[in-house]
Amino acid sequence: MGCCSGRCTLAFICGMQLVSVLERQVIDFLGYQWAPILTNFLHIIIVILGLFGTIQFRPRYVTGYAAWLVVWMTWNVFIICFYLEVGDLSRNSDLVLTFNLSMHRSWWMENGPGCRVTLISSPPTWAPADHRYISISDCLMDFQFIEVAHSSLQILLALAGFIYACYVVKLISEEEDSFDFIGGFDSYGYQGPQKTSHLQLQPMYMSK
Questions:
Q1: Whether 132 contacts 119, CB under 8 Å
Q2: What angle do the packed helices 59-83 and 34-55 form, to 10 degrees?
Q3: What is the DSSP pairing of strand 134-137 with strand 116-119?
Q4: d(CA 110, CA 117)
Q5: Where do transmembrane segments lie in this chain (predicted)?
Q6: Which domain holds residue 150?
Q7: Could you say which of 95, 142, 171, 208 has the lowest number of CB atoms within 10 Å?
Q8: Angle at 133 between CA 129 and CA 134, to 5 degrees
């Protein structure tokens, strides 16, 4: 019963991770955030493998999924530090998330709740000719805090997934050990009835 409830909970957590990361993947595609796109894609594949291992009693898949969650949490901590500009990090850097392939920022920068985007007809001389120059105002929440909230959700789901993955691997291993013990006991502890001969020897008398 414990293994069933643990597996069901882990399967639910994997489902929540898939839904949340797919939403995040769409947003990152719209914002041309290439580093998060690649990382999200890898995360989707590993979560699917972890879900498969959970359903099919494959502890190696679940163990690999748990190990990846440590990397995934580390990545999301970095994203939080990046958008909050911890240390020398700057969210205006083009190299970190877009591989310096574009000047795009987070999709939430222009499409956050309540944001009003105004196109400036006379951009400054330093602005590239093939880019538009806009002004953003009246946002109810700045884009960096929305990104921090998304990464925080991923960390919470990954932490719950890691705990339940370790729990499920432990239960599956215990069940496998108990099955091996019972199988070995049956192999040597019971022997079927053996056939016995019903022939009896009768004495012979010889007449003179």
A1: yes
A2: 150
A3: antiparallel
A4: 6
A5: 34-53, 65-86, 151-169
A6: 2-105+142-177
A7: 208
A8: 165
User: Average of pLDDT values for 36-61?
Assistant: 94
Residue 71 lies in a domain: yes
- Centre a 10 Å sphere on the Cβ of residue 39 and count the other Cβ atoms it contains: 20
Distance of alpha carbon 147 from alpha carbon 137, whole angstroms: 18
Q: How many CA atoms lie within 13 A of 16 on its CB side?
A: 15
**Residue 205 covered by a domain:** no
pLDDT digits (tens, 9 = 90+) for 93-103: 766 787 666 66
Amino acid at site 38: L
Nearest to 83 by CA among 108, 117, 102, 110: 108
What is the Cα–Cα distance from 57 to 104, expressed in whole angstroms? 43
Q: From CA 61, how far away is CA 65, in angstroms rounded?
A: 6
Tell me how many domains the chain contains.
1
CA distance 149 to 179: 45
pLDDT, mean of residues 184-206: 51
Residue 115 inside a domain? The answer is no
**Backbone conformation region of residue 99, classed left if phi is above 0, alpha if psi is from -120 to 50, else beta:** left
Residue 137 host element (H or E): strand 134-137
Q: 54 phi and psi, to 5 degrees? A: -65, -40
Question: Of 2-11, 69-78, 106-115, which one has max mean pLDDT?
Answer: 69-78
Q: How far is 165 from 17, CA to CA, in rounded Å? A: 14
